[in-house]
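Researcher: Batch entry, complex prediction.
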Amino acid sequence: NAGVTQTPKFRVLKTGQSMTLLCAQDMNHEYMYWYRQDPGMGLRLIHYSVGEGTTAKGEVPDGYNVSRLKKQNFLLGLESAAPSQTSVYFCASSRKVEAFFGQGTRLTVV
Amino acid sequence: GQSLEQPSEVTAVEGAIVQINCTYQTSGFYGLSWYQQHDGGAPTFLSYNALDGLEETGRFSSFLSRSDSYGYLLLQELQMKDSASYFCAVRALNSGYALNFGKGTSLLVTP
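Model: Structure tokens for the complex:
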């Protein structure tokens, strides 16, 4: 079982560029999440989804968009990257108790 | 929304017992979870409490008091490999059961 797979693992963007982070899970989970992790800030929820075709805003949604067209995939888009979006991004999926995380995407915006 | 408070750092000696506390404020509380994260790695699930009381999983135990909005993670027989960050997380009805995390506690186990 692959679990939760994130692509890419590393990326450097220039300010103003756009990109999409892909998260794929093979556990048939309903819930999927995108978090960002910054030093001393823990894991902050960006957006989440409770099922195919649904998305909702988390704690820090500004500057990001998401889509969940297929149950197994959850995409995170950065419309116009800013240096403040330099972070490590984690995707996770769950049923109602245990969440499984991908290995993270380290994004640097210069 | 929710807020969770936990200590930022804890240091303990190998073989000892350490307790990491977590207090939370939320509405529509569904459960309290604990996750471990080693440097550069992904968070991994440790335990979950939906009801009051103690849950034990090997060397790790987790406790919940819903009336006090409080929980803790207890690590016994500490090993060097337990040096990591530990996060409490709440799942609440008012956020669609999304997991919201505290800022984490960095545990350093010394020889």
